[in-house]
């Protein structure tokens, strides 16, 4: 079985979750796209380094043969999945900080 066949059901589920649960705050598409870009770039950098160093490897028969540097394109599926799922469940509210009072200090 190829990495694509294993990954597609999970990516489809993540995309459905993202579409159904999305739109909870203004700019959700742009925010997801920005986070996706950052995560994919970091994945490309560090996965290339790990493959180059010989820490991981992929069987040629299990992937499509499309590479970004040394990284098979299927290696990005996990990163895409995680960004979509986290974005689907993120409510978009700004985190509020609590102010410390004098009683909180020792």
From TrEMBL:
InterPro entries: Lycopene_cyclase_dom. It holds the Pfam family Lycopene_cyc. One of its GO terms (molecular function) is intramolecular lyase activity. Keywords: Carotenoid biosynthesis, Isomerase, Membrane, Transmembrane, Transmembrane helix. The chain crosses the membrane at residues 32-55, 67-90. Its main location: membrane. It is found in: Membrane. GO terms for biological process: carotenoid biosynthetic process. This is Lycopene cyclase domain-containing protein. It comes from Corynebacterium endometrii.
